[in-house]
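Hi R.,

As promised on Friday, here is the backbone we talked about, encoded as structure tokens. Could you run it through your design pipeline when you get a chance and send me back a sequence?
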């Protein structure tokens, strides 16, 4: 079995390489993007020891066809991942996520031995705000309007003015991305389906919720809130919770995600499915901050600012029924256990200054994408 992992030097890739059975031949292709690999600008020695590592942008991989020939399973992880950043660096996201996938598929078409399966690391960002209900019907809101957000109406309301209830996200729901990032993840899915249907290649699209855990690059200010909040709380720095602090996210432990990917790679039967991957638990921003602070034995200095990021969604949690239909019972790591493992790893590292985060927030503000609700 030979597996090609694009973006394999990244956060999820590192876990995956460790969890791949020892008899598998692994090729890692990664551009070592400077934004992501700030504290680790090269392939780690343990990665080099286990996999053939190629430094290349997925948009430019024809030169490496010989190393890729004979691949059985492709795992496509390479992507830009910042929701907020995608709203002003549009062309970078379109280029790297959509064009990068197209180039990868063009290369697949040239291989003598076609892979039997492509696994895509997609995102729940493809759902946008997802599906809501009033208890009777399902609604797919258009996304929150700027004028509602500016009035501090954070939630989603039906036509009669009643607050609607979010439903766990599953692949039967419509896809309506609210960010450029989400749009590019949907294009990746569609490109892969289109290509694989015509080539008779099996597809597994995995829509991840917010993945966290050890090895998540700390130097990247677009790396997700578990890292950002941990960094602030551990150093006694102030942190900001957007909206009213009651945004919810589903935090899924990276080890669980890697296990799910390995199951997909191994499965002997065709998968041909879109599978949501999360913990199944919706956690508010306030809860995540307080849980991290509690585990660190610190008090979190947070401010609920009433500011909001344009393109953000309000609530997210995964419906795990598609996973369970394919692979049986899903037993995710609890948030307490996952965070404890994360913090143990984090505390062995030098804390990072908050300047990169402040600069990324200032940039969003300058671009008019980090706004404040009217008083
Ligand atoms: C994240 C991932 C994305 C992934 C998606 C679904 C990152 C950077 N993004 O998007 O790649 O596909 O989950 O799995 O990991 N917030 C604050 N204060 C801050 C920063 C953020 O309150 O200082 C809020 C944001 O407005 C948002 C929430 O925290 O409501 C989560 O933000 P973030 O970690 O950037 O991730 P997502 O946008 O959920």
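Update: got your reply. Pasting your designed sequence below so it's all in one thread:
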């Amino acid at each position: 079995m030979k597996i090609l992992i694009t973006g394999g030097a990244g956060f999820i890739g590192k876990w995956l390489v460790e969890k791949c059975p020892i008899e598998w031949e692994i090729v890692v292709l990664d551009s070592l993007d400077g934004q992501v690999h700030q504290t680790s600008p090269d392939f780690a020695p343990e990665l080099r020891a286990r996999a053939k590592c190629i430094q290349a942008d997925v948009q430019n991989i024809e030169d490496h066809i010989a190393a890729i020939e004979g691949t059985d399973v492709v795992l496509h992880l390479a992507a830009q991942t910042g929701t907020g950043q995608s709203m002003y660096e549009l062309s970078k996201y379109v280029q790297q996520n959509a064009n990068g996938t197209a180039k990868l598929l063009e290369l697949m078409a040239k291989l003598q031995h076609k892979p039997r399966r492509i696994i895509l690391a997609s995102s729940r960002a493809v759902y946008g705000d997802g599906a809501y209900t009033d208890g009777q019907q399902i609604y797919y809101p258009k996304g929150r309007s700027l004028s509602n957000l500016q009035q501090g109406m954070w939630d989603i309301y039906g036509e009669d003015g009643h607050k609607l209830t979010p439903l766990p996200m599953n692949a039967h729901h419509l896809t309506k991305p609210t960010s450029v990032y989400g749009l590019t993840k949907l294009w990746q899915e569609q490109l892969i389906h289109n290509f694989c249907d015509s080539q008779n290649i099996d597809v597994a699209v995995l829509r991840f919720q917010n993945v966290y855990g050890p090895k998540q690059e700390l130097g990247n200010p677009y790396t997700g809130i578990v890292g950002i909040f941990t960094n602030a709380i551990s150093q006694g720095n102030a942190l900001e919770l957007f909206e009213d602090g009651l945004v919810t996210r589903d935090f899924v432990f990276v080890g669980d995600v890697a296990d799910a990917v390995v199951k997909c790679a191994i499965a002997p039967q065709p998968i041909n499915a879109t599978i949501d991957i999360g913990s199944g638990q919706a956690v508010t921003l306030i809860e995540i901050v307080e849980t991290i602070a509690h585990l660190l034995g610190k008090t979190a200095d947070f401010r609920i600012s009433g500011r909001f990021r344009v393109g953000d969604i309000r609530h997210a949690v995964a419906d795990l029924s598609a996973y369970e239909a394919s692979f049986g019972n899903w037993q995710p790591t609890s948030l307490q256990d996952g965070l404890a493992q994360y913090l143990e790893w984090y505390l062995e590292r030098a804390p990072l200054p908050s300047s990169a985060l402040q600069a990324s927030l200032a940039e969003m503000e300058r671009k008019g994408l980090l706004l404040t609700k009217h008083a």
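One thing I noticed while checking it: The chain has a mean pLDDT of 95.

Thanks again,
M.
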